[in-house]
Every structure is written in structure tokens, then in C-alpha cells.
Amino acid sequence: MRGFLWWAAALVCAAQSTAGFVPRGLSLRRSHRGALGTPSPPREGLSSVSRVPRGGVVPLSALPVAPQDAGVAVFGLAAATAWLKVWTTLAGKDLIDPKLSRKVVHSGSAPLFILTWPFFTSGAEARFVAAGVPLLMLSRLLLASFGKQPELLKAVSRSGDAKEAVGGPFLYVVMLLVFTTAYWRSSIIGVVALAQMAAGDGLADIVGRKVGGARWPFSDRKTYAGSLGFVLGGFTVSLGLVYWLATFSCVDLGGLGLADVAVRLAAVSVASALVELVPLGDDNVTVPLTAAVFTALAFGLPLSPVVALS
């Protein structure tokens, strides 16, 4: 409990000083209504901190940090800590296989974090406050690599080697940080990319181990069942998160119906699953990057992030 309070206090302090750490010249341009996958106009009551003037650019260093954003970020950190604690405790008591525990944590961490996004304000600085959650998780993983976070190391490591903390798990959180700051809830690209990385890749391993069966001819580890699990998991979670954000008017689907959105997301899931089969690079990098590209193509969206240096 003391450790969580320390991290929560650090997150609040980071949130209050976020503007000061944004590189000079970094700004957020006002999004236009009606573009597919872009934010709808903010609803009254959900956001009130700052509004970017029509056609103008507001330096992030001039914007305040809303207490609401800091509060939601602390809640997100608490939820992430609890999610990790539940599964590590079950694994520690031999109630669940440690390998399964790690993959459940992998599958659920990013989607749970995204569920908190609608509760941040529409202030331009909100994404950077939210990014404090994965940023603090990165710092914990770095500490774990030096043996300072034994419980976390046990949760993310297969062999107990401290170096694993800065391997796949570290890249997972880096991608979470990158897509949060680059796309935020302003585009479905980031949401779908993270869903494929988390739920798709995670369920591929879980289903592949549990079901087994025939393997792909070019791989002695990947199974047909695992790939099917990837597609179903990535598709279902992507669809759910996209409509979760749309429900709160965070994104505008441009008039596309459920069937149209589902077909496009299914195609993205298949493409991401195929890339997961390729033994090149780390899945925590190749899968979300592939998903981002194919989401942009499927929905006709620009790949360029909303935040730009000017």
C-alpha cells in the first residue's frame, strides 16, 4: 500500500508539472468535426479545462492541468496495480499457471487503461497526464531490472532474470506510452493498435497453449488455434473499445454502421495475426505498428499523429 501511495503521489506531481516538461514548440491543433475516427465536439460537463481557439494553436506550456485529469490518472494507476496484484497473487498461491497469469496481465492491461480515457477532460494536456501512467510503469520496470521490484519482476519474467523486465514487457509499455501521446482518443488508430498488441497477441498465446493442435508449416511454435485466438481477441476488444469511446463522443465514426466498422476491424485483426506469425522483431512492436498502418488504410485515416512539432 505504501508503494502505491508513493507512485500515486509521483503521478500527481508529474501531472502538475506536465506542461513544463513538454518540448518547446509542441502544440495541439484543433481537430475538425466530422472526420472519421476523429473526436466529436466535447460535450458540456465532460471537459471544461481549456479550449483551443478556432483555427489557432495553443502552446502546451501555457495550459493548466485539471484536477480531474490527475484524479483519473491516479485511478488508472490504482486499477493497473490492482490488476497486476490479483493475477500475481493467484500465481503465487499456485491457483493459476504463472505463464497464464503473465498473458492475462498482458491481454488486459492496455484495454483497462483505455477504458479510463473518456473520463479525462478534453484539455490539450490531458493525454500527457494520462501518459504519466505508462511512464511510471516504465520506471517500475527499470527498477525491476535492477532487482528493486521483486513482485513486479516475478509477474513479467519467465525465468526470473531481471533483464527480462526491460525486454518484451518494457516494449509493451513503451508502445502504450507512444500511442497514448501520439493518437490519444483523437483517432481510433491508437486504440486499435493497442488492442491488437494486448488482446490479440495475448490470446494467441493463451489459446495456442490451451488448445494446441496443428501448427503452421513454417513455425514449430505457432498454431492455427493460436492465430484464430489472436483474430477473435483482437477483433472483439478493438470493436468494444472503439464503441466505448464513441459512446462518450470521443471519436466520430463518420456515419459508418456496425457492420462496416466490424468488417474493417476484422481485416486489421487478420493482418496483425499474420504479422505475429513472422519470427522477426518483438511482437510488442511489430503487431501494434502493423495494426496502426492497416487501421489507417481500412478507415481512410492519416497516420500522422495529432500532436505535431511546429
TrEMBL record:
Which reactions fall under this protein's catalytic activity? Answer: phytol + CTP = phytyl phosphate + CDP + H(+)
Tell me the route in metabolism or biology where this protein functions.
Answer: Cofactor biosynthesis; tocopherol biosynthesis
What family does this chain come from, according to its entry?
Answer: Belongs to the polyprenol kinase family.
What does the organism's lineage look like at the top? Answer: Eukaryota, Sar, Stramenopiles, Ochrophyta, Dictyochophyceae
Q: Mind telling me which residue stretches traverse the membrane in this protein?
A: 165-184, 224-246, 253-275, 287-309
What UniProt keywords are attached to this protein's entry? Chloroplast, Kinase, Membrane, Plastid, Signal, Transferase, Transit peptide, Transmembrane, Transmembrane helix
GO CC annotation: chloroplast; membrane
Tell me its EC number(s), please. 2.7.1.182
> What is the membrane topology listed in the Swiss-Prot or TrEMBL record?
Multi-pass membrane protein
As for subcellular location, the record says: Membrane; Plastid, Chloroplast
Entry-linked InterPro entries: Phytol/farnesol_kinase
Range of residues in the leader sequence:
1-20
Q: Which organism is it from?
A: Rhizochromulina marina
This protein is called phytol kinase
Q: Which GO terms describe its molecular function?
A: phytol kinase activity
